[in-house]
Write the C-alpha cells for this entry.
Amino acid sequence: MDKKTTKAVGIDIGGTSIKMGLVAERGEVLATSKVSTGALDSDGAFAKVCEGVHALAEQGGIDAGKLDAIGLDVPGVVLEDGTLTMAPNITLDLAGLTTTLREAYPQASLAVLNDANAAALGEAWLGSGNARGGTVMVTLGTGVGAGVVIGGNVIAGAHGAAGEIGHLNVEPEETETCNCGCRGCLEQYASARGLIRLYREECEADGAEPVAIAHATDALAVFEAARGGNTQAVRACERLGHYLARALAAVAVTVDPDAFVVGGGMSGGWDTFGRACLAHYREVAVSACKDTPIRPASLGNDAGFLGAARRALLSL
Amino acid sequence: MDKKTTKAVGIDIGGTSIKMGLVAERGEVLATSKVSTGALDSDGAFAKVCEGVHALAEQGGIDAGKLDAIGLDVPGVVLEDGTLTMAPNITLDLAGLTTTLREAYPQASLAVLNDANAAALGEAWLGSGNARGGTVMVTLGTGVGAGVVIGGNVIAGAHGAAGEIGHLNVEPEETETCNCGCRGCLEQYASARGLIRLYREECEADGAEPVAIAHATDALAVFEAARGGNTQAVRACERLGHYLARALAAVAVTVDPDAFVVGGGMSGGWDTFGRACLAHYREVAVSACKDTPIRPASLGNDAGFLGAARRALLSL
C-alpha cells in the first residue's frame, strides 16, 4: 500500500468489548482487533485503548504516530459537535477518553459519533447502502433505532435524535405504553420484545400454545417457529414487517433516501419478515419512492468501526 | 454597499407570476420585482425573464453582467442535480430557460430547486427557521409539502421527494383514498380541502348546519367560523392541529431539526390550530425533541426568491 494513502482507525465501543479497525481511505481494512472492556472512566482504561490503537497500527504495518484520523463510536446520544449527552448502558468518561487520544495522537483528526449512526455510515460507505447519497439504516435489536445518512455523511440532529425512529408512531390506536411514555412506537413491535409480544397476541387470539421462549428478548425462537411454519409466528413476523414498512414510508417522505438497510440482531430474521415488509412498503410509500431498495445489512459487526473510521476521514 | 459583496438574483417562478429579488450574501434585499407570466416555453418568454433580471440589477445599482449567482425555484419535482422531473401546474421548459440564463449570464453560478424547498431555505436563512442547522418548513395550502433543511442547506432526496410529508400517513384507520392512492395522508386533513372535510364531518356528527363555504378550498371560511366560536369549526381546526403534530413528531425522530416552520396559505389560520398542534406535538414527540419550536413562517411570499438566491450563493 502507498504510504501516502490516508489511514484512520475506527474504534467501536460496545458495552462489553471494543472492536477496532485500521482502514485506508478507500475502505481497505488493513487490520482489526477486539478487546474486552470494563468501565471506561480511568487513566488505566484510557491507556489500554491507546495500547490497542498502537498494536493495531503495528499489525497494519504503519506508525501510530502517523495516523491521519481516529473515529470513535459509542452507545449513547452524541451531538453534532461530539458531545455525549446520554449513555445509559455503559460506564464511559468520553471527555477523558478523547483528551487521552488527542494527547497520544496529536496529528490525528478525532471524530465521535453514536454507534447506530456509525453502523449506518459504514453500511452506506461499504455495505448495503449508497456511498454518496442517502441511506437510512434501521437497527432492530433490544431497541430500535436508525442512522440517517444524507449526501454520504450521517446526521446527528439538533438533539442527537436524528434516526430515533424506534419512537415513530406506527399505530395511533395502541393502548399499551412504550418505555418512552408514548403509545404505538415502532419499537413496541419491531424490537425483540415487540416481536415476542406480537407472537403471544397471535397465540392468544387463536388459543394456541406458544413455543418455548427462553427469555424476554428471545426473538430467535419466534423466527425459528415461523421458519417451521408455525401459523402464529408467521403472522407475528408479517406484522413486524408491516409496522416496519409504515415507518420506512414515513422516513421516505421526509428524507427520500437512495436505500434502506435493515440491520441489528433482529435482521437475522429478515427471511421471516422481509417479504411482508417489502410488499407493504410498496403499498404505503409515496409513488416516487416505491422502488427504493430495502436490503439487509451486509457488514455485520464491522459496520461500526468502518463507519467511525469513515466519519473521521470525512472530517479531514 | 461594498462592490465586492457577493450578490445573487433569486427567481421564484409561480403559476401566474415570477417574483425576483436581488440579494446580497448576508441576506440584504437590494431590489425586488414581480411580473405576470404565461407559458415559459419559448425564446420570447425566456428573453422576458432575462430582461427582468437586467432591470432588477439596474434597480439595485449593479451590472447584471457581474452577478455572482442566480437561483431559480419552480413548482415541480427537481432532483439534486437540478433536473425537473414533474411540474403539473405550469408550462415550463426548464432546460430551455436555464440554457438561456447560462448564455446571458455566463459568469453566474446557476442553481435550480423546488419551490417548497426554496421557501424552506429562505425561512431557515432569514425567517423563522435556523440558519446553520436543521429546519423543516411545512407548507399548508391546496396541497401539503415540506422543505427539509439540514446543516443550512435544503435536500432534494433521491427522487426529489424529500419533504413530501403531505403523503405521510397520520391515520392508518382512514377509509377515504388520497389523490396519491394511499389512505390517511396528512394532506387529507391539513390541506384546504382537508380542513373543509373535517369541518363537514364535525357538522354532520352534530347535526349542525355548516357556515357558507364559497369554494372547494375556502379554508378561510372555516378559520373565520372558528374565530367566531363555531363549535364544529373549532374542533375541525383542532383536529388539523393534531394531525399536523403527528406528522411533525415523525419528522422529528427522522431528522431532529432545530426548528419547525409552518407556512403556506393555510398558515394564516395558525391562530385557530397552532395551540392544538403545539400541545399535541409535546404529547407525541420523543422526549429529546419535545421543545423543538414550531413557529409560523415570517417571510411571506419573499421566502421563495430568498431561498433560491441562498441556494445559488451556497453553490459558489
